[in-house]
Design brief:
heterodimer, A: mainly beta, 7-stranded mixed sheet, 4-stranded antiparallel sheet, 0% helix, globular, B: mainly beta, 6-stranded mixed sheet, 12 strands
Chain lengths: 117, 113
C-alpha cells in the first residue's frame, strides 16, 4: 500500500516563475492537507481539502497561492510569481475519509523542497 | 480553541540516558494527541497517539507518552536514548475527526555518544 506521494521532491525556480507541487494521498484517503515548513521552524497549516472542495484555507497567503484537489488526479499546490521567501519544504498529508473512523492521525509525504533563486 | 506548546526547543542527552520531551496543550474538546518524529530531509512519521483510551500510550522505537488531563500535558519519554533518536519531534493536538490539527513548534533532540 503506497504511502503519500509528493513530487517533485526538489524544485528550483527563479523569482517570478510558477511552482506546482503535487500530492497523491494514500489509497482510500480523501482528505488532503498542505503544510509549509521554513528552515528551523515547525509546520504551518496552509489548507485542507477534500475532493473538489476547499474545506479550510485559513493558512494560505491571500495572494499567489492556490490549491486544488480534483475529482481525478493528485492535489496540487500552486505558487505563482515565486519570491525568495517562498523557499521552504512543503508537506502534504492525508487522512481517511469521513465515512471511516478518523482519529485525526495524518499520514505525511516526504515533502517537496522549493528553492527560489 | 486549541493550542499546543512544546516547552523546549532543544534537548540534549547522552546515549543510554532517559529522554523527556515536554508538551502542554489546550483544547475546548476532548482532544486527540499525537507525537510525530521528523528525521533530516524526511517527512513526519507517527510515533504514538492518544485517542481517549488508555492514558499511557506506547509507541514505536521504545517511546511512550502519558496523557495527564489535570496538567494538560502529554510528555514524551524513552528510558534509554539511542543515537538514531536524534531528530525533530512534534507534539500535535487534533479535535475529533481531525478537522483542526495544530502542531507544536518542535523539539530538536540531540544525542551525544
Amino acid at each position: 500500500n503506497a504511502g503519500v506521494m509528493q513530487n517533485p521532491r526538489h524544485l528550483v525556480r527563479r523569482r517570478g516563475q510558477e511552482a506546482r507541487l503535487r500530492c497523491s494521498p494514500m489509497k482510500g484517503h480523501s482528505h488532503v492537507y498542505w503544510y509549509r515548513q521554513l528552515p528551523e521552524e515547525g509546520l504551518k497549516f496552509m489548507v485542507y481539502l477534500q475532493k473538489e472542495n476547499i474545506i479550510d484555507e485559513s493558512g494560505m497567503p491571500k495572494e499567489r497561492f492556490s490549491a486544488e484537489f480534483p475529482k481525478e488526479g493528485p492535489s496540487i499546490l500552486r505558487i505563482q510569481q515565486v519570491v525568495r521567501g517562498d523557499s521552504a519544504a512543503y508537506f502534504c498529508a492525508s487522512s481517511p475519509s469521513s465515512g471511516q473512523v478518523n482519529t485525526g492521525e495524518l499520514f505525511f509525504g516526504e515533502g517537496s523542497r522549493l528553492t527560489v533563486l | 480553541a486549541q493550542s499546543v506548546t512544546q516547552l523546549d526547543s532543544h534537548v540534549s542527552v547522552s546515549e543510554g540516558t532517559p529522554v523527556l520531551l515536554r508538551c502542554n496543550y489546550s483544547s475546548s474538546y476532548s482532544p486527540s494527541l499525537f507525537w510525530y518524529v521528523q528525521h533530516p530531509n524526511k517527512g513526519l512519521q507517527l510515533l504514538l497517539k492518544y485517542t481517549s483510551a488508555a492514558t499511557l500510550v506506547k509507541g514505536i522505537n521504545g517511546f511512550e507518552a502519558e496523557f495527564k488531563k489535570s496538567e494538560t500535558s502529554f510528555h514524551l519519554t524513552k528510558p534509554s536514548a539511542h543515537m538514531s533518536d536524534a531528530a525533530e519531534y512534534f507534539c500535535v493536538v487534533s479535535n475529533t475527526g481531525g478537522f483542526k490539527t495544530i502542531f507544536g513548534a518542535g523539539t530538536r533532540l540531540f544525542v551525544k555518544a
